Amino acid sequence: MHCGREVLVQQIVDAGGHCPWCGKAFNRDYTSMLVKGLVEAEESGNRFQDALEQIGDIEGLGLALETESIVAPLREALRAMQRHRVRA
Fold first, then answer.
1. How many structural domains compose the chain?
2. Short-list 9, 7, 10, 2, CA closest to 27
């Protein structure tokens, strides 16, 4: 973040890929890709959470999900994103 303040995904989307506080683009060449990716990630995350909750609501389910098999790929994707982050 350019100005060091926390920001919500929707604020970045509403600002067209720019910081809602200082107005600077997070990356001037990829603002539309950033907005599209953030919207997609948030929608997918919500669907994923809903799906897991539906599975969790099934009574007598003879299935155990290994938490790390779900969380590890997400953790690695977040780490990759952090590696590509420009340090202000």
1. 1
2. 2
**DSSP states of 49-72 as a string?**
HHHHHHHHT-TT------HHHHHH
Residue 1 lies in a domain: no
Domain boundaries, position 44: 9-83
The tens digit of pLDDT for each residue in 29-70 reads 999 999 999 999 999 999 999 999 999 899 998 888 899 999
pLDDT at residue 3, rounded to an integer:
78
The residue count for the chain: 88
pTM value is 0.76
Sequence-distant (≥ 6) Cβ neighbours of residue 31 within 8 angstroms: 16, 17, 18, 25
